[in-house]
Amino acid sequence: MKGKELRYTETLEVKLTLTEMETLRKQHAQSIYQSRSAFVRALLFHHSITIRERNESFDDLIEEWIQLRKELEDIQKQAPLGQKSEKVLELIGGIKSGINKLLDQCMQK
After folding, report:
1. Which of 10, 48, 54, 87 has the most CB atoms in a 10 Å sphere around its CB?
2. What is the phi/psi pair of residue 51, to 5°?
């Protein structure tokens, strides 16, 4: 409604058990609604409720990092010894360390 703001003037009081209230809080937390009122309104009037799922692209990124780390380990195992190889192995170790730090930070969130 452009130009006209909806005004909610009526209230509805509903008594819930602690378990029911906790269930409502959890469902609201998983929804896209910022306010509990908007969430309950959507439930009352049978609006479709969108639930947040894990971020697939983030999961794909994590899988790519893990695969890259495994491939770097394989390269490290197969690398011949020598002065150039030592530098390459150090570089691979640094890359693996960076990947591990990123994975650790991402898993904490």
Report:
1. 87
2. -105, 135
Show the tokens assigned to 2. Answer: 């452009």
Closest CA to 37 of 10, 3, 5, 2: 10
Q: What is the pLDDT of residues 38-76, one digit of tens each?
A: 899 888 888 776 666 667 777 778 888 888 888 888 877
Report whether pLDDT(103) > 80. no
Distance (Å, whole) CA 18 – CA 28:
15
C-alpha–C-alpha distance, residues 92 and 69, integer Å: 9
Token pair belonging to 18: 């602690």
What is the C-alpha separation between 63 and 59, in angstroms, rounded?
6
Q: Are 98 and 105 in contact (CB under 8 A)?
A: no
Adjacent-strand bridge partners of 36: none
